Amino acid sequence: MTSAQDGIGASTPTKVTVLKASKLAKSYGGHLVLKHVDFSIGAGEIVAVIGENGAGKSTFAKIVTGVVHPDSGEMQIRGRVVDFQSPRDALRVGVAYIPQELAYLSNRTVADNILIGRWPHRAGITSDAAITSLAVDEAKRFGIELHVNWRMAELTLAERQLVEIVKALIRSSQVLVLDEPTASLTSGESRKLFGILRQLVKTGLSVIFISHRMDEVFDVSDRVVVLRNGDVVGDVQTAEASRPQLISLMLGAAAEELGEQRPDRVLTEPALQLVKWSWNGEPPIHDLNLTVNRGEIVTLFGLRGSGGEAIAEGLAGRNSKFGGTVVIEGREFPVFKTITASARAGIGYLPAERKRDGLVMPLSVQANLSLLVLRSLSRFGWLQPRAEHELAERMRNTLQIRLRSLTQPVATLSGGNQQKVVLGSRLLARPRVLVLQEPTRGVDVGARFEIHHYLRGIAEEGTAILWVTTDVEEAVLVADRLVVLREGAIVAELIGKAKTQGQAVAMAAKDAA
Amino acid sequence: MRNRSIGLIGVIAMLLVACGSSNSPTTTSSAPIKIDFASADDAIGVFKTVSDGMVSGAPIAGVTVRRYDNKLDGATAIANADLMIQDHPDVIVDWNAVANVGAALGKKFADAKIPCLAANQPIPGCAQFNLSNQKMGVDAANVVVPAAQAKGWTSADTTIVMVVASPNGVEVNNGPRYFYITAASLMPGYPTLTPDQLNPQTTVIGNKQGLQFECESTIEGAYNNAKNKLPTIPASNHVMLYGSDSDCAEGALRALTEAGRQSNTLTCGLGPTPDGLTNTRTNPSWLCEGSAFLDDWAEFLIAEAVAIKKGIKVPALTPCPQLMLTKANVDTYYTADNKVKLIPFPPEDQYLVQTGILQKFHNVQGVGA
Amino acid sequence: MPASKRSDAALSGRTRLALGAMQGLGLGGFYVIVLIYFSLSAPYFFSTSNAVNILSNVSVIGIVTLGQALVLISGGFDLSVAGTVPLGGVIFTILLNRGVNIPEAWIVAVLAGCGVGVANGLIITRIGINALVTTLGTLSITSGLAYVVTAGETVEFKDLSQGPIDNVVAGMPLYVWTMILISIIAFVVLRFTVFGRMIYAIGGNREASRLAGIRVDLVTTSVYVISGGLGTFAGVMLAEQLLAGAPTVGATAALTSIAAVILGGASLSGGVGGIPGTLVGVLVLGTIANGMALMQVPSFYQQIATGGILLLAVGFGRLRVIFGQLAG
To answer: In the predicted model, what is the mean pLDDT of residues A470-478?
Structure first.
């Protein structure tokens, strides 16, 4: 029952069933998302729920936490039948939810957000001071450090996620459900989070988490439940499961060997060069030089805050504070001050937060795909709907985007498919250089595979790709060259046999662990 | 939070620091008489003409006029009253067209002990200068009914149509009201009604012998309502039409014309409006146009204000110059392009002659014209 | 310790000072400039009596605006105030003329306004019609009711002495004190109560609030009830000023109150704003009207000038953002 740093879940499940769900079913507009789900979890148990996109994982999480009402089925908490009509009902019995898409008040402080709905008060009267001090205490309780007085809008995505986590931790006394909790956390922060969870389950808390990261699933969970097409197709103890077994359960077919290594390629024709890049921000960068050759995939890997985000945004023209030059296929530019300048120079940019920065949520899939190339689809200012449709249809095919119709709002697609739409919209602009930021964040295994496959394909056709990621597994998988960033400087360039996860992580961290 | 605090502090500072400043102007007996005038609504042409007239007439009359705008809103009228009182004029002339709000205004003026003159709508405690819509209606009926009878129309086949503007109060709608009462007395066969029985609730009188609808203050409003209501009376009926003003009559007439009933309609207008005057000269259906010589009220208002200041006894209600212009006399008082040539002088206004103001304008019949 | 991309963190100390000064300037500073301008150009402007005039003029719309502020911060919109104001005045006047005493008539009018608010809230939360359309509908209904109940005419007070609110206490009319009192209450509620926080929460992110267990429907409806009640309350106050109940008043109340709240820093999408800013917004609008009347600016030019000044005022607040982007 010891817990090594990366060992298997530390506590053995007890006999007390905390949450039991039977025959859960839910359909949305005629489409049966959950067909027949039976599920149970005991006190102190950590269960991972995995599955391809559209398998029903998020819907399951929402039913269990009262966000959505099932069409049929029953739930029991510690033997008592419950019928959640709203998240409030679930929270009252101690079932808390951290959604995949963060739900916070961007104009209020961290403290206000953590304590939302349960602000400390005396007869209805409260004060900023009371809220702040309680928030500080609660964050400390979980060992998470936060600037409780800053506004949420001023935090980075990862910090906001931590706030959501603290918010939910306070409210969960029985069950905590997390949907892709580590999507924007680095491996260090993920480890820390799971450390906290492991501590909490010792007190009897049950944890259900949805994840696409196999490493996490094997590191942390006691049990794995596999969903496919709305049914539970597997429910195994983690210790007895294997990766290929799980993947084949998820995909429903014998899994091909995902994660084959690429043959090493050496390419020498520079397509993108960063020359003497510097800025005074966080982290400070001095005289950074980086080259990406034609047809090459260079992954820029580092811990969060090591500079990859800043560089990507600088290349995209989102960050005008950089100094230096950019050379694209021989043409020299000063660092782009505007997004238009960057696009005109031939850079295609995939932002990290697709919902906020990449997609127009209420618009259709088709409209989002054509967003960057509208002018080429119009004649004298009139948009040609047929041309737009053909283009969208082609991209849908190429990327295998799963949807009902091209005209459905992009908000109704699953995360992985949304990511494909953003990618597709950038590709249609035929960039010379692709700059990607976390392109498979929150994307399920199947879609991730397809995206990797596709990007490799267009690299082979000659596009240069600069791939910024904090996912070391991915960084190693797709790179021709793996460049490691640490605190704003390039500390290593790994190719060939040296390109391993261990090496990358070691170079990226300041000291060991 | 800070910037808002600065704003609030600014206001408080203004209150405190300004305490000591004295702003009461000193008026010596030789200074020109100071009149503060609040217009009914400068956005409406008819009222703006009076308002402009006050300002342009001031130098001619040898007085000063400061003007305000009530914007047809009770709350604005109250605010303007405060501002006018703050100015300490010799006389306040207030045209507040929102009916029944006058009591509050009168109270303010009385508390401030500033004499006041109410234009058009009454303000308790103030003298009033107004046209008599009742007289207009009576005069109009006296022109229209004989003409109708000459054509052989009777009460059995003629509908009296009234277009009213209820929100503007009882007085304004006395025109159509007394038009009906007079017509009913001249042409037998109509239900006899007292003035109270002709009110905003009235829609139909007798067996399609009377019809009333709202004007909504514009030609379009009258036109639309007329279009909707006309089908309720037999298409073959003759129509004697009267509106609370010419716009109302014109809108209704337009609807009647569209329905092909122009030759079957006789009407009089009240304004006068340029269209109304043109119609009086040229349109066989338009027999007369009431004029309250509104454009020239300014000089009368100034004259009465001066009279009040000078302590001359003024009656509670001073009638304005008004006349029902017919095809016969329209050119005596109006030029071919509808400008006033001559203003008739009501005998009750005799006391104004002493002020010497009207003489300076050289356009009133019998008074220095 | 998580590092963060706090935008000001990277700037030098002096730039930060300048930005801070500019932020402090904002709408409040602009208002001071307006005050100075009118003091120099308009007679009587810089006097106690005129300051009292301004405050009196904005009392009625001020109370309406306080209710509107709550609604806007909660992410909603209340156009029906243009109907509840006349309805309140009219109900009050009619009851008064029937012999009901002032406090009781006032309470009935306020309850009527709350009833309108309940209707608004239920339609928006249960039936799901958006706030704009819903309150537009209730606006028509309440405004029409006001006309029906008075037969289209303005109804005078039979007893003209029933206007105690006009009395002056400590230099200012009672209705100014009333507005001040309600402002203080609104301020305290928004800043220091749980209910106030909930209003900010559902305005900032309704879904997040729902997920956090806040009863968003109840809070939404409550806010509309408050706005409706304050609307009729203001209508009663106006009737007391006019000594009559007029169905024609309040036509511009909706847009004016929304403009004042936005001017004061609230956001149309909700979750941002506050009472002090709202009050300054109300004062700015009222002061401009007063100043221009004193300067005898012709009505048509007043409209143009008001629009121009509003743009300037909002622009002042944006200066900080623009300068922030340039300085960095």
So the answer is: 83
Q: What is the CATH number of domain A16-94+174-255?
A: 3.40.50.300
Phi, psi angle pair for B13, to nearest 5° = -60, -45
Judge residue A255's burial from the number of C-beta atoms within 10 Å of its C-beta, 0-12 exposed, 13-18 middle, 19 or more buried. Answer: middle
Q: C98 at the A interface (CB within 8 A)?
A: no
Nearest Cα neighbor of A57 from A39, A84, A78, A82 is A39
Q: What stretch of H or E contains B135?
A: helix B133-150
Q: Which domains does chain B have, with CATH numbers?
A: 31-131+294-321+341-361 (3.40.50.2300), 133-291 (3.40.50.2300)
pLDDT digits 0-9 by tens, C13-51: 555 555 555 555 677 888 888 899 899 988 888 888 899
Give the number of other CB atoms < 10 A from CB of residue A228: 18
Between C212 and C219, residue with greater pLDDT: C219
Q: Rounded mean pLDDT of A148-166?
A: 85
Instruction: Return the domain boundaries, chain C.
Output: 48-317
Instruction: Report whether A347 contacts A431 (CB < 8 A).
Output: yes
- Candidates B297, B280, B35; CA nearest to B143 is B280
Q: Do chains A and C touch (3 or more CB pairs under 8 A)?
A: yes
Give the SS3 label for residue A387.
helix
The CATH class given to the A270-346+431-508 domain equals: alpha beta
Closest CA to B61 of B299, B328, B267, B274: B299
Give the one of B82, B104, B167 whose C-beta lies nearest to C242's C-beta: B104
Q: Which of A104, A124, A281 sits opposite C10 (nearest CB)?
A: A281
Rounded to a whole number, what is the distance in Å from the CA of A9 to chain C's nearest CA? 27
Question: Among C53, C152, C243, whose Cβ lies nearest the Cβ of B167?
Answer: C152
Give the count of Cβ contacts less than 8 A between chain B and C: 176
| Residue B18 pLDDT > 50 | no
Residue spans in chain A of domains classed CATH 3.40.50.300:
16-94+174-255, 270-346+431-508
A and B touch per CB criterion (3+ pairs under 8 A): no
Question: Has residue A13 got a pLDDT over 60?
Answer: no
For strands B127-130 and B317-319, give the pairing: parallel
The answer to whether A64 contacts chain C (CB < 8 Å) is no
Mean pLDDT over residues B184-204, rounded? 87
Residues 6 or more apart whose CB falls under 8 angstroms from that of B142 comprise B182, B186, B324
User: Residues B35-76: pLDDT tens digits?
Assistant: 999 999 998 888 999 999 999 999 999 999 999 999 888 889
- The complex scores an ipTM of 0.79
Coil, strand, or helix at residue C5?
coil
Amino acid at A54: G
User: b/e string for C212-225 if b means 16 or more Cβ within 10 A?
Assistant: bbbbbbebbbbbbb
* H-only helix segments in C243-298: 253-263, 275-294
* Per-residue pLDDT tens digits for B299-341: 999 999 999 999 998 988 898 998 888 888 888 888 888 888 8
Whats the size of chain B, residue-wise? 369
Is the pTM above the cut of 0.80?
no
Q: DSSP of A228-254, one letter per residue?
A: ETTEEEEEEEGGG--HHHHHHHHHTSP
CATH architecture of the domain with range C48-317? Orthogonal Bundle (1.10)
Chain C residue nearest residue B167, CA to CA: C153
**Three-state secondary-structure class, residue A483:** strand
Which chains pack against B, by 3+ Cβ pairs within 8 A?
C
- How many residues in total does chain C contain? 328
Highest-pLDDT range among B19-23, C182-186, C299-303: C182-186
